[in-house]
Amino acid sequence: MATAREQSAGAEARVASADGTEIAFEQSGRGPAVVLVASALADRSDTTKLAALLAQHFTVINYDRRGRGASGDASTYAPDREIEDIAALVEHLGGSASLFGSSSGAVLALRAAAAGVNVDRLALYEPPFVVAEGDDGPPKDLAQRITALLAEGRPSDAVKYFMTKVQGMPGIAVFFMKCMPKIWANLTKLARTLPYDIAVMGDTQQGKPLDAEEWKGVAVPTRVLTGGKSPAAFQRAALAVTGILPQADHRTLPGLNHGAVVMAPKKIAPQIIEFIKG
What is the pTM of this model? Predict the structure, then answer.
């Protein structure tokens, strides 16, 4: 009978997390296992192209984080629940896997490794830590503002606020996105999970050095990738991560920005492939 790592079917499947929540995923490819961890306002559709590129070399799990896409959710949230989701997917794969995460998904991947999930290697694209005074971070009351907008039944406004105040997107760019009904409708469906990513980030966007004690459990080989066109704060964050982890390095990819995982997967995939193959 074929093991999970030998199967190559791309049909949707589910695994039960520790709290019983069902996590939906697609599995493809053969070889060493890699789990893709999505960023804020993203589900597995955002990493479909990247998954296809990686599946030429690895067994790839492309999953919907809880509360997104076809995955279930619970009545209360804590980042530990999402770590348990990753652990369940890793267990499905045979007990160990590498992780690739982008933006806040990179931080979630780091938290999974720090919590003791059996991770082989970590590939991270632009974890959005804010480690220096003067670097632009999110508003201090971000969690309260987003929570209030969602409580008022205004998910579209919550998405706009997050995109402009956190991601730094110009208002005109948001306007044009709102003119694409299918894309905007999916974003507003994902708005309810914005507090999840805010909780994953914790206090790591307050313009202070990373707490080495918080991440001491991350002892696996780690590669931090940044885009050459991204703000310098991402470079400083990457250097801060590599500075506190024992087996980490950093690569800058010319011409890319923070949206590269979706917009330029062909330029990111070779770095992930080379690193995970060791």
Answer: 0.95
pLDDT of residue 1: 31
* Cβ atoms within 10 Å, residue 185: 11
HEC-encoded secondary structure of the chain:
CCCCCCCCCCCEEEEECCCCCEEEEEEECCCCEEEEECCCCCCHHHHHHHHHHHCCCCEEEEECCCCCCCCCCCCCCCHHHHHHHHHHHHHHCCCCEEEEEECHHHHHHHHHHHCCCCEEEEEEECCCCCCCCCCCCCCCCHHHHHHHHHHCCCHHHHHHHHHHHCCCCCHHHHHHHHCCHHHHHHHHHHHHHHHHHHHHHCCCCCCCCCCHHHHCCCCCCEEEEEECCCCHHHHHHHHHHHHHCCCEEEEEECCCCCCHHHHCHHHHHHHHHHHHHC
**How confident is the model at residue 11, as a pLDDT?**
86
Q: Which of 104, 94, 21 is nearest to 61 (CA)?
A: 94
pLDDT given for residue 74 in this prediction:
97
Under-70 pLDDT residues of the chain = 1-10
**What is the predicted pLDDT for the residue at 168?**
87
pLDDT at position 136? 82
